[in-house]
Amino acid sequence: MAQINPRVGDIPGNTQLVLATARKVLAQQAVSLVVFPELVLTAYPPEDLLLRQSLDVRIEKALQELCAAKLPTALVVGYPERIDGKLYNRLAVIRDGLIIGCYSKQCLPNYQVFDEKRYFEAGTQPLVLNFNGLPIAFTICEDLWFPEPMQQAAAAGAALVININGSPYSRSKYEERLKCMRQRIAETFLPLIYVNQVGGQDELVFDGASMALAADGSVKVHAAQFSADVPIVAVSFARNQQEIIKAEVHAGVQAPLLQNEAELYAALKLGLHDYINKNGFKGVVLGLSGGIDSALTLALAVDAIGKDRVKAVMMPFDYTAAISQEDAAAEAQLLHVDYSVIPIAPMYHAFMQGLHSEFAGTQADLAEQNLQARCRGVLLMGISNKHGLMVLTTGNKSEMAVGYSTLYGDMAGGFDVLKDVPKMLVYALAEYRNSLGVVIPQRVIERAPSAELAPGQVDEDNLPPYPELDRILELYIDKDQSMAVICQQGFEPAVVEKVIRMVDRNEYKRRQAPVGVRISERGFGRDRRYPITSGWQPGE
């Protein structure tokens, strides 16, 4: 099970990764098949790269290269192929320098982050090939979520099913997959080998977690989560008295499963690591405020790419509390990162002087508060340009949902690792990270959160308490519940309406926000597509 981390669009590089992985396996042990993930030659998801005219030529060259290698094993690789002007999500089995069989994905997902019907035509036929007397069927990803493809494979005489995947991570996804696989096995009595991609791709992160299941649904082999892994699966088979071949998957390596915050932290870390490295950034810079969001972001950055590639900047103003400055310095020291302090008062006052005639006769309000945040954004972007460091923003999902952020201020940057992490989960992840070694001072976790853009300001001056806010947001955003249904959960109608209106009217901000790791089934990005200009009202 070649659970590898390919790079989207890098067809030559992915081809070499396939060959190098297979050769490494063969140097250790003779195997009959090396199975790679869905669309491994382009990596998943290639999106509109699939519309490029040169795609066909590049894929053909890659397949020729795989065949020419004539490895002493069969390769199972996923790739896109155009046939009679129609594009298919395909799988090829290569043995002895030849493509001995191909399969086209039958069930095309078109929900949440998936958009396959935009690109692909659906296949209709099964593929069953004989390996040393064992008939094996091959399917692709979504085919596993519907009964027909695997039943079709069983009817065609298969004794084992291999399913290749580009299945992105979200919370509870592992349990959903396992339940689905066991359902298919119960319907066909066929053992199943599931091979998934691993790695980060823009907002998506792929967790791997490839596995082999026996005909009773038990997991016999399990690959690691969130890292490349190539475990071996041993399969034996025999004919029974009815001349039916029965395959048995034998117990092998079982990588430990991550749980709860450990799993989420690993997903965020991998997504951040791959975004930085696959895009060629030297490192990252972020504003360190002394608050919990920037503290957790700093810890994730250091864990993802190492302290030597991370720079933190404290940018205090008149309203920045002394303990915020102390805590930011402590965080930087605990994580051993390059740390600077740049007060923003001089530039803020320069801007205010320039705006004097425009602001004359008005009361101080959000314009002055946001100007502070925008001074910080300018500083960070200047450091980014000068040193080739990507700016990490630090906003969480709760803030992004209600627009508690400043365009061209704290939203200025290239990546937001906490973009899909609600505030209360930020606290849980901070506690988890400290359980591995304290890097976030306890009072940062315990203090009331504040943007510190006005004297004595705290978030709850403008927002409901975060436990209440996060629950309302979950029901409205993740579950698509109406105002009436949310109020039935015991929330005050006025509070619910206020939150919903804040979510709806801040769509324009989210469209301009940096990309971030998706960990829920309804992240801000390709999951959730709402109009900016809209007359929709909360209503019932």
Briefly, what is this?
This protein has helices at 11-28, 55-69, 147-155, 173-188, 260-278, 292-305, 322-335, 345-354, 356-359, 366-387, 397-402, 423-435, 442-446, 466-478, 483-487, 493-505, 507-511; strands at 33-35, 74-83, 86-95, 98-104, 128-131, 134-140, 160-165, 192-196, 198-201, 204-207, 211-213, 219-222, 235-239, 245-249, 283-287, 310-314, 338-341, 389-393, 415-416. With 540 residues, the chain is α/β, with parallel strands linked by helices.
Spatial order of the strands forming the largest sheet: 5-6-7-8-11-12
Low-confidence spans: pLDDT under 50, at least 5 residues? none
Largest sheet features: 6 strands, mixed
Q: Total number of helical segments? A: 17
Helix content: 25-40%
Topology at a glance:
Elements: H1 11-28, E1 33-35, H2 55-69, E2 74-83, E3 86-95, E4 98-104, E5 128-131, E6 134-140, H3 147-155, E7 160-165, H4 173-188, E8 192-196, E9 198-201, E10 204-207, E11 211-213, E12 219-222, E13 235-239, E14 245-249, H5 260-278, E15 283-287, H6 292-305, E16 310-314, H7 322-335, E17 338-341, H8 345-354, H9 356-359, H10 366-387, E18 389-393, H11 397-402, E19 415-416, H12 423-435, H13 442-446, H14 466-478, H15 483-487, H16 493-505, H17 507-511
Parallel strand pairs: 1-2, 6-7, 7-8, 15-16, 15-18, 16-17, 18-19
Antiparallel strand pairs: 2-3, 3-4, 5-6, 8-11, 9-10, 11-12, 13-14
Helix pairs in contact: 1-2, 5-6, 5-12, 6-7, 6-12, 8-10, 14-16
